[in-house]
Specification:
It is built from 15 helices and 15 strands. Helix 11 crosses helix 12. The chain is elongated and about 70 Å long.
Length: 417
């Protein structure tokens, strides 16, 4: 990897803020904003340059959502850039650290994952000269606060970056809104702050998002999800009549016993996917529950004469998955049940007019008008009503319509696990 030769003004500030008299008094730096805005690479490089100029034999932490995603998204690009400027390093993967030497000065950088509440115990006890938290808004508060508490060495500093979430998010309230109180330098990034991002790539990312996700990941705003989940759904564009000749077929299933079961038959033609038929059974509406075997018979009827490449099923429906496997007719896979990421993918497919629905699929069309964001949740969550066809559609899109470059990062998404 060759050294990046051109940096924007904000990227240059993240590289050298600690050495400039007007900023050196800050204890921390916080960078938020759009995806692909260049903040992660410039911040991680600046973090190592600061550590090498301020400490020798120091211990530091670089943190991500998971150690695996951290290595892929931060460490690998960082080490390539450091090598380009004459740094040497010795990485010990089994112990999750790297020793980096620059101008004869060596420091150790440990890798940590802040996946859930239990992660705080992993970083507890270590004494740090500095910490860099990539995607801080995706980490639990307990982990971030424990990492900050570990920075007890004199002249230690803290580095944070993230993409926006809801304005009620704890990191926004406790760090971004209180940046001055925390003695932190706050910088807001847009895609224009990344000179290495071409116009074509910017346009691709703009196509990936709509609604709240567009505001957050393209415009870099901390905005709440409200109203209809899919306001871009347009019956005049997205509903069709008649038959479509398709080259491939799949079925997606949201399975319920007390709650309704919703199955959709999908076919692809010229790169666009069509919901051709559906099965929707509500025991409350019909007055009687159905067994796994009865639902399976309905599944076979829905498939008809179509050659089904796979059945995508709600991962919690263990008994129904086993029922399908026992019949040995269909290949079954467990669906990706990341709700917010799945909603984002469906939104992009609708916005790009790549997803269509037969007029006879009345239940999914009905749910589009009823499916709304909850105003009672502190984080993104749709109301758990009128969502069964919405769920089977989300399973389908996440399995079959994932875009190139659509990584679960998020940095491009806000996963809820």
């Amino acid at each position: 990897m060759s050294m990046i030769k051109k940096f924007s003004k904000k990227q240059l500030l993240t590289l050298k803020w600690w050495s400039r008299p007007e900023y050196s008094h800050y204890d921390a730096i916080i960078c938020d904003g759009a995806v692909r805005s260049g903040k992660t690479l410039s911040m991680s490089l600046g973090f190592v340059l600061w550590a090498s100029s301020s400490f020798s034999g120091g211990t530091f932490a670089i943190c991500g959502k998971t150690v695996t995603s951290l290595k892929r998204n931060v460490i690998t690009p960082l080490l390539g850039q450091l090598k380009s400027i004459g740094c040497t390093y010795r990485e010990k993967l089994s112990a999750n650290y790297v020793d980096i030497t620059l101008s004869g000065v060596t420091n150790r950088f440990y890798y940590f994952g802040g996946r859930d509440e239990s992660s705080a115990s992993l970083i507890q006890g270590i004494t740090l000269s500095g910490v860099f938290l990539d995607e801080a808004a995706l980490m639990p508060r307990s982990f971030v606060e424990q990492a900050v508490a570990r920075c007890s060495v004199r002249n230690s500093k803290m580095w944070f970056n993230c993409n926006p979430d809801t304005p009620s998010h704890w990191f926004y309230r406790e760090w971004i809104l209180k940046a001055e109180e925390k003695n932190a330098l706050y910088l807001h990034f847009t895609m224009e702050d990344n000179p290495s991002l071409s116009k074509q790539l910017r346009q691709r990312y703009e196509r990936l998002y709509s609604g709240t996700f567009y505001d957050r990941f393209v415009l870099g705003k901390w905005v709440a999800s409200e109203g209809a989940v899919y306001p871009m759904f347009d019956a005049s564009k997205h509903i069709f009549s008649g038959s479509i000749e398709c080259s491939k077929y799949v079925i997606s299933c949201d399975y319920g016993t007390v709650n309704p079961s919703s199955f959709g038959l999908w076919g692809v033609s010229d790169g666009k996917w069509y919901r051709l038929r559906e099965y929707y059974y509500s025991s409350k509406r019909e007055g009687t529950a159905r067994t796994d075997e009865e639902h399976y018979q309905a599944l076979e009827k829905l498939a008809g004469d179509c050659e089904i490449s796979k059945i995508i099923v709600d991962p919690s429906a263990a008994s129904f998955i086993e029922c399908i496997r026992r019949h040995r007719k269909f290949h079954v896979v467990k669906a990706d049940n990341d709700v917010v990421t799945g909603i984002r993918r469906v939104s992009a497919a609708l916005r790009q007019d790549r997803l269509f629905f037969n007029e006879d699929c009345r239940d999914i069309i009905r749910e589009f008008s009823l499916y709304r964001w909850s105003d009672k949740s502190a984080s993104d969550a749709p109301v758990k009503e009128n969502d069964h066809a919405m769920d089977d559609m989300r399973y389908f899109v996440s399995e079959m319509m994932r875009e190139p470059g659509d990584r679960d990062l998020i940095a491009l998404s806000v996963p809820r696990e």
